[in-house]
Design a protein that fits this description.
This protein has a domain of about 70 residues: 2-Layer Sandwich (Alpha-Beta Plaits), CATH 3.30.70. A hairpin with a 7-residue loop joins strand 2 and strand 3. Strands 1-4 form a two-stranded antiparallel ribbon. It has a two-stranded antiparallel sheet with strand order 2-3. It has about 100 residues and is an alpha+beta fold. Helices cover about 25% and strands about 15% of the residues. It is elongated and about 40 Å long.
């Protein structure tokens, strides 16, 4: 999906600068490729309405996958902060006021 904007993300007019720090802070990435996949099947890739989280192949991890965060797709719904079963995702306010403008929906 690399830098692919979903239709709903595009319609929200959310804009993020590519070079800004990621506002989705994962405090400990280890559960994503161990406990979260074993117990929950990495639900972040399914519950995020903007497809911010995707699983990528990574032979260096225990299960051969790693979580990729496409923060520029984020529509600031905080679903990840609320529904993350391992509670390692922390949504923080992004730089630059690039929040959604739902007038186009």
């Amino acid at each position: 999906m690399a830098d692919h904007k979903l239709t709903s993300v595009y319609s929200s007019s959310t804009m993020h600068e590519k070079a800004q720090p990621c506002h989705l802070v994962v405090s400990d990435p280890n559960p994503c490729s161990t406990r979260c996949i074993e117990e929950f099947g990495n639900p972040c890739q399914h519950f995020c309405p903007a497809a911010v989280y995707e699983m990528e192949d990574n032979p260096d991890t225990r299960h051969g996958i790693d979580t990729k965060i496409n923060a520029s797709n984020c529509v600031h719904c905080k679903t990840c902060d609320i529904l993350d079963p391992c509670q390692v995702v922390n949504w923080v306010t992004p730089e630059g006021g690039g929040s959604p403008e739902y007038t186009n929906l």
